[in-house]
Amino acid sequence: MARLYEYQSKELLKEAGIRVPEGSAASSPEEARRITQEIGKPVVIKIQVWVTGRAGLGGIQFAASPEEAKAKTQALLRMKVKNFIVEKVLVEEKLAIESEYFAGLVIDDAAKSPLLVFSSVGGTGVEDIARKSPEKISRISIDVLKGLKKYEVRNMVRRTGLSGKVLTQLSSILARLYKVAHTYDARSVEINPLVLAEDGLVYAADCHFTVDDYAVFRHPELGIEVAREFDRPPTELERIAYHVEEKDHRGTFYFLQMMENIMEKDMALGFNGAGGGGSMMSMDAVLNRGFKLANYCDTSGNPSASKVYRAARIILSQPNIKGYFASGSGVASQEQFHSARGLVKAFYAEKMSIPAVIRLGGNFEEKAIEILEAYLKDIPGKVEGYGKDDPPEFCAQRMGELIKDNDFGLHRVVPVEETKPPSDCYSFDTVTGKISIDHNKCLDCRSHGCIEACSAGILQLHDGRPVLAIGKEDAKKGKCTECLACEIFCKFHARDAVFIDLPIPGLNEYRDKVIKNSNEMVRK
Amino acid sequence: MAILVNEKSRVIVQGITGREGMVRARLMKDYGTRVIAGVTPGKGGEFVYNIPVFDSVEEAWEKTGPIDISVVFVPAALVKNAALEAIDAGVKLIVLIPDRVPIHDVLEISRFAQLKGARFVGPNTLGLVSPGKAVIGMIGGRAEKASEWFRPGPIGVSSRSGGMTSAISYYLTEAGLGQSTIIHVGGDAVVGLSHPEVMELFERDGQTELIVMFGEIGSTQEERVAGLIEAGKLTKPVIVYIGGKAAKSGTRFSHAGAIVEGSRGSHAGKVEILKKVGAHVVDTIADIPRKATELIE
Known about the structure:
The complex is a heterodimer of chains A (524) and B (297).
Chain A: E1 2-4, H1 6-15, E2 23-26, H2 29-39, E3 43-47, E4 60-63, H3 66-76, E5 80-81, E6 84-85, E7 89-93, E8 97-108, E9 113-119, H4 126-132, E10 137-141, H5 150-158, H6 164-183, E11 186-197, E12 202-204, E13 207-211, H7 236-247, E14 252-257, E15 268-274, H8 276-288, E16 292-293, E17 295-300, H9 305-315, E18 323-328, H10 337-350, E19 356-359, H11 365-375, E20 383-386, H12 392-405, E21 426-429, E22 434-437, H13 439-442, H14 449-453, E23 459-462, E24 465-468, H15 472-479, H16 485-493, E25 498-501, H17 507-523
Parallel strand pairs in A: 15-16, 15-18, 18-19, 19-20
Antiparallel strand pairs in A: 1-13, 2-7, 3-4, 3-7, 5-6, 8-9, 8-11, 9-10, 11-12, 11-13, 14-17, 21-22, 22-25, 23-24
Helix pairs in contact in A: 2-3, 5-6, 7-9, 8-12, 9-10, 10-11
Chain B: E1 10-14, H1 19-31, E2 34-39, E3 47-48, E4 51-54, H2 57-64, E5 69-72, H3 79-89, E6 93-96, H4 103-116, E7 119-121, E8 127-130, E9 134-137, H5 143-149, E10 152-159, H6 162-174, E11 179-184, H7 195-204, E12 210-216, H8 221-230, E13 238-243, H9 255-261, H10 267-276, E14 280-281, H11 287-296
Parallel strand pairs in B: 1-2, 1-5, 2-4, 5-6, 6-7, 10-11, 10-12, 12-13, 13-14
Antiparallel strand pairs in B: 3-4, 8-9, 8-11
């Protein structure tokens, strides 16, 4: 669930006609001073971070004058709160509170409908109130085809014991709340507290709005960079990974870092699962053997070989891991050799020197294991491939034995040098990369096995050289599935004339920093 | 018997000319599923593996006769319209394969299906198989593997994880235990047929003697299954594995969610309530065939 900050949430409410306190976000003390001056009243200054209980953390301050607002903001900005650095504060008029209510909307998985919840008591501890005084809470399951009717929200508010002018105001707010939730594909919205001020008007004093990750594409105006819920800001490596996922929708690629500053004693593994259930089962297996996970990663749903390659390169950008462990459900419906080829390209490029246990069970697992073992036997590390009849517990045990019986050491992030063909050679673009073929090398090649290897069947021989049998535009649109088979065949069985460039924006810069850091550590 | 699909079910594929649609139409046809038509707007008149393609579901129905099941392989953003089209044409079971379908779209499909008396599986599902009869979706990948991995028998399998649907069924087959129907209910927060609804179908199915359920943390599906057992609406033995014990629980931000769900959704909560009502909760996947063998005997 992609979260919005309070100030963004309130902008949406305001646009929907729900009254919010006058104010706006500030990124500097001077900006806070100016906003306070414009408001012309005492203000409240609230840090904009995704944590609850901000008041208790000192993240909510009051100021009576623009100068005081400037000074208080100075102290709040750059403050570190649970994993977040404060980069913005919301400066808004201080309300004179008469009563507090609560309004929220969630998706009810049992009823398969949006559920609107209203409480005539709001503020902190609202779930305890719900338990102790159920009569103060009312809820309605919304019929999405009929929509939410005015009389329904009026009755909701009435049932909690409210009446009069506040009832009509609250009813209108609830109706608008559903509307804005629906318009922006909300996964949940919560206004707490909803405040009746001394001026007799009801204001949304705080708001949490989360947007459905799968619908973020419909709302570019929200400017959501990483459509996932984190309990901390995404790391640089997670951002790099997210942009890979965003640009290639073939299969799933999910990457989450679970450790920072990995040490030898941590026994940390790079983890590459496949499928939610299979990944959880596989994680349990390695955790039970005393390993830690440097990261969680899921490549599933029939990802392209190029996507698995990128995932592996990202996993291997974490220094000091002891091994690489890949395992999914074990009985996958998808053809497993695509993942195998992605791993081969990545491990080979990295000249990986740590052991890897790869469990690619399912369709064509024999071929997948053969690819791994045949092409990775010469890298410094050791790679073992397993299938559906090898349980994750056994694979975790093998991981432990490989680490224990050999002196592989820790994974080091080093610059990756790939031999690129001449820039003027034959080439064509693919969905996410570029394939170059050095035809000078093809002339004395007798096998031309690249053509047979191509799983999409889009290569043909022309004057003894492999070229596209289809238009370059079609290859770029996806007729070339980036299966990597031509490159791997040519590299290991023929002339090493094919090179597939699969850029990962930002990764080289990231790795340069990692390398610099580790060099500094060594000097110290 | 078996549930939801059998050898007589008349099936169409929406999005049959796309990458996945084409490959999986072949899997289904090779396995023996009666795939009578495909639908891709603008490609009417073409054929995919000898399956005729039409411009709309309505046209497919007019020209090939009644349709029992439509399996949808279109991009996520187009799933809602494809599903509504099939439901409107009169199809009573829709199987939504794609993942990343917006949740508000799923709610709309759900409500429309309810009004029209239709049901749906997914989204984000590998599909379902009634071994020896028919496969719907992409489960098994290839017909020969689907035939090898899944065998007819007395066990109903329902799973929230696609890979684990196949894995559990394969390990049961290896242990000499066949399956009535295996179904991946889908991995999303809101799905059409969820575990409790599938349990009720297995309860009424003559072939099913024992049920295996793979649950996960989050949602209220497993708790609702416990409710069925407690209410006496589910009397067949149920073996349960709940995944996600090792997962860190996320910070809960929604008070409304807490008001509605209380402590439901956690690994411990699900295990506890299922054990309490008498379900056979196991700790590892390897325990499933062992427990099933014991219970069948």
